[in-house]
Amino acid sequence: MSKTPKKKASSSSLVASSPGYSPKKDSSSAVASASEGPGEQKSRFPVWPEWNDNEVNAEKWDAVKTPKDSKFFDDQEGMVELPSSLKVHTWKRPSEYIINKTPVVVDNEAAFDLTSANEHLLSSELMRWIISEIYILWKICNTGEDKPVSTETAANPWRPWEHIYSLCKVVKGHMPLYNGYGKYVIKLYWMGCWRKIVVDDMLPFDKDNNILLPATMNQSELWPMLLTKGILKLASTDVPVLSSGRELGEFTVIHSLTGWIPEMIPLKYWYTEKIWEFLKETIPKFQLEEEVSQEKTTNADLTTSKDSDETRSRVNLPQNLRVEIKKIRLDRLWCPLRSIGPQMVVCASYQPLHLSEKRTSVLTKMADSSESLRLYGLSQLYSHPVLLTSTRDCPLVAPPKPLAVPNWKLIRPRRQTNITDEPKEPPVQKPEQLIEVCSPFINFRLMTMAANDMEQGAVKRRGYNSNLASFSEMDDTEEDHTLNDITQNSPNTLDAPENNEVTAEEKKKDANIANNAEKAESTSNPEKTGDEKDKEKVQTAKESNSAPLQSQDSSDKPLLQETWVDLHNFTKSFQTLLIFHKPETYAHQCASVHFQNSISSRLSNTPLSNAVASTHSVTAPARQPDSTATVHTQSTDGRCTHFLFVDNLLPTEIVICFSALTQWGESVEEKRMSPPRPAFLTAKPFSWKSIVSELPVVQIQTTASKATLLTLPPGRHVLHIQTRSPLAIHLHLCSMSPFVFGDEETVMPHLDKESLRFCEQAKLTLNALGRVVSCFSDPEELPSAAKELEKTHGVGIQQQRVFNEAVYHMFCSALGRKLTSEELSAVQTLTGDPSPHGSNEKAADTASDGYPEGWNGRQATDQEIQGATVLQAGWKGYLVRKILTAARPGTKENLSVTKTLEEMWDSVVSDLEKHAVAMLRHMVANGEGIADLYPCREDEYNRITFTDFSVAVPEVTNSWILIFREVFHVHKNMLLVPKIYSPLPLCTLHVINNDTLEEIPRVFNRVEPHLYTTNKSGYTFVAEAHAGNTALTGGKWRMRLIGSREPLPQLSKETPNNNFSVKELKGYYIPNKKNIICRHVVKVSTDHNATVQFQTSQSDVYIKLSILDNEKEVISNQGKGHVIIPIYCFLANNGASVAQAGARQDQGGLTAEGIVTEGKEGSDQHPADTLFHKYCLQAEVLRKSWPLDESLASFIQNLRDLERNEMRVFGDILEGTSASVGTEQQNRDSQKSAPKSTHKAKEREKDKDKLTSKSSFTMGQSLDTTKPYWTLRVVSDQSEAGNIEVKKDTERLEEIRAMKLAWESAEPGRAAKAHQTRLRYLKDVEEPTTAETGTPQSQQSGEISALKQNRIDIDYTPFIRKSLPQPRLKDEVLEEEQRRERSERFQSFRLIWDNILEQRKQEKTARRDMMKRQLETYIGFQDAMDEYRQKMLQTRDAYRSRVLEEQSHKKKEEVSVEIAKQVELEKNPPQIQPGALKSGGKRK
pLDDT by residue (tens digit) across 544-564? Predict the structure, then answer.
């Protein structure tokens, strides 16, 4: 479409409201200002406000009297966007081109003509659709009995000008008036509700001064132009396919004028029969006059009966059928052949001709469609929708009745035989299947061309009557009348030059058809000549052209032309079936609107309701529009999620209407450069207990509004509906069956109940059981009732005991107590099972658990066991005989049992459905395979129960936080699915089995559905999250546990607690050979549960976090940039924890050896029989995934120097040492005079405190976040925070420090002496280097240069003997092991060497064999070549010898012939004549 430049916008044009479906809503719409600052971009999302009667009544229709205001109203949204086929030359107001008359909005209320005066617009597809759908809607709503168009007889007439408001109030039947200011309000349906659209009266004109909007014959009548401007605004939101060449996509005018739901079904020839069946059920059926009269007579007889109302409800036949031959009236179009049901209108459409199409298959279909359309007076060049009014499977005229045959001829009828040479096959009669279509453009172009040609005097036999094929069923006598009707109904011609497009073959074909028609007419009227007929045709065409100009009040001219289309040609001619559903006729509805935040932020003045009303609770009768629920939500990325729940005993049909807003305000260039994406809707079967994605059952792709019919089989269904749209979506669901539609909070509570099929099966079973109880003493009915019960519950012999137990529990539940002995006997008689049931059995077992005093510690003998068996068999036989006697009708015991059962049954009948469901649920839960016997087993897939646990979210920013950590105990094996709802985007849930420390698998960061089994310590649920830049105030985190049945796992505490204490440690990363990032020691005073989390500054580093106990790994986890150990129990070093640690010995690798420390206190504190733990947290880098930049080399070196300084014991003494060795000796003597024990203790404490202070300073100082660093967090409960201590692992440093102190105490001055010796060595190494270079160097630089020169890059690792973790004495056992290892290595080497030699030998043999085979092959080739060569030589020699022999024979024959000639000459010499001699002599 071409878009004209917009006018300047002001703040009053952008009106916003909360979108939604509200048919009876009376609230004011909020106005959002669109005025923006100089740096802001103009908004492209001005949403038209919802319709409000009060706002329209208070609308100001004239200009505010200020000097700056304009004289006329200008639409702030700019000029409307016209189709690209219409070129705008100028814009005018009505007062500028209507001079002689006063403009009016409505001039004629009885009828209108939108085709005669709009021929120049029919080249636009969008204009044709607007005109056609207005005609269709007028005929549907305003068709009466007497006239084709009548607003007086229709019950609810529809007038198109009632959508226009100007200088009037919002009342029924209002009449808009002409507004000189030029402001008009249009009421149209868009995005789920009626909208208020403001337009001005600026009208477009082309260069020929033709108005480019639909108009009536009276151009001073403005309602078509104003209504079309509002429709064009809605159509501009649609996105047609660019390559299709169409002017509209899926936008429908009827939907915008009525709100009816458009369903589009593509027509395919392979399901023609289904289309026919659907049309027969949906639209009226044509019937002959005799059939209608018989139906009326039958109905009249039925109404005279006593129960007239009931009889009328049973008759499923139409009442108001016309007796005329042509068609049935359309007054019953909304309710065809079905007394109760939704109302709908059926239309059909076809696509325009694509001349640029290159695919042969598509061109073939287009040619077939064009040819089929020509048969019925339609043209593919002018595509538009047509209305389907009725179906017909009988002739238009009833066939004549056969002549009466006298009775005497029926006594011995004569057989008619035809004597032919060949047998004749009976002709196959094709059933009549025709559809009546209505359109304003039937024969439109064809008749106007014929009228123009006749008027010019060039009367030729042209094919303007080519549509006679559609009336082939008529007789010849009616053909003339049909031709005249077609000619009279033809409107004016179009100016488009299309005469050149008719080929020669088409002209010839049309001419033949016209000639045949003229011959038929001349046959019927032989007195008329050809010239007279031509004159009549010209006069008829002139009258038909001038008839609309004379008067518009003539209602005899139908707005829509009718024709019958054969079903076979119907699927070839039309491509789409349009079905418009009326939402008010559906009993249950629900709507949902979603706008992106970019749009919804401009609706801040209008509150959005989040309340969801589901349709299951609607108690209003059918056809109540108040049973509509509307959901208003917002979406950030255009993706929305809904759930649909259906539970029905019958098949369910739901109409899903999906409307989308995919563009707004883009120019033509912007659409061409970046076309907007269409919106998508998919509906898939869904279950919260499975992660398997099912195939979609519904898929919709649209740019405007599209609907589809969802058909579901009986049972319970849950569908997951996902939608995606660039800007906004609207969903509208309609059904005659109840359903629930909304989010999870709306749908999930309904899944806890039993399905309807389950309840129905349970009630059938219990009713069958009740019949057995009622006739338990009747010998005639009891057998049949028992068989019916067996057939109803359907369990076999193996599951019969489960059914008997279910009956027992059902009676116990109904009575609310245990059964007495009489009642138990009655139940056993009813079920025929003498064994005890349920709680009575448990009570008996409990009572018999106690043994006599003399039986303690002894076993029963064989005689005692045999005696007990005999007693049990006798008792069982007695019970069986008693049950059989009581089950026999007529006995005294039977009457007693019957009376007891009837008394018990009264308590069951009080709540029959509850007890029936409980009984069937007991059977399904305890009987294996019983659920598969019933069709309701499929409904168990969607049955769930759930419970929620919520905690508050800590108010922190840019940090990792632990939100939830609780233990749940599972009492019974069940399938569970945890689902979290977190205000934080990055939140992960971990589930740990406390017995095995295994984590439940996760799929896409979600815990997968898992079968949780009962265990001793339960399952720990741990939730972690990453806080964003802004802290959440009052945020709630919620976890929902979803299971198949109750009871769900219970929390170990009464309420969940999220008050945690976090010990956080940070440090810089220093690369090393072992790839260890850090090591920290954990000490606990009591058994302590903690969560450990480790994080690196770079998110792409692969790390491993481990917990070591005595240097043995007990648990570990790996991650990328972040790793967590969700839960671990650190055991304390005391005797009380030995039993607990024993359970974890496999995971923890615990030892029973005590760690002996220095001093008597350390040795006395941990006895030898106590289990000790030494936990260490260790983080490692994997795959060398943390490379550092070269710019960080100096920073890393400084960190290493700091570590080296921490390891120096006498660093402060040695750095200031400048005295001689003698002075150091004096200091050494003074140190010896002090007590050794006191000096040793003081040095140890001083150095230990110094090391601790340095390490704490390194961890506690503020880190530079631009450098590589790490963070370690240990999370505990706030109440147990003091029981755990985490510090850096300095055990190795302490050992080295203690060793150096011990050396120094044993030999005072050792460290200073070693330091002086090292300095002298470095000085000696440095002097030669200084002499060569000639430059003095400092002591430190000399040390560094000497180290660099003496360093040789040689890897000595292969030459260094590997040492064991702990030293071991080399004894005989170790020598034997080493010898055995060496022998094994030698043996394995010999085996490998032998294998290699054998392999080489085999390869050598194989090579020899291959060479031998190659040589043999070569010799074979040579022999074959020699043989072939020899054959060739022999053949050549044979041929040569044969040729030589032939030549020799030939020579011999020639010689013999010559000899024979000579001999013959000798015998007969030639005679010489005398004259010859004389002449010869004379010459001489």
Answer: 333 333 333 434 455 788 999
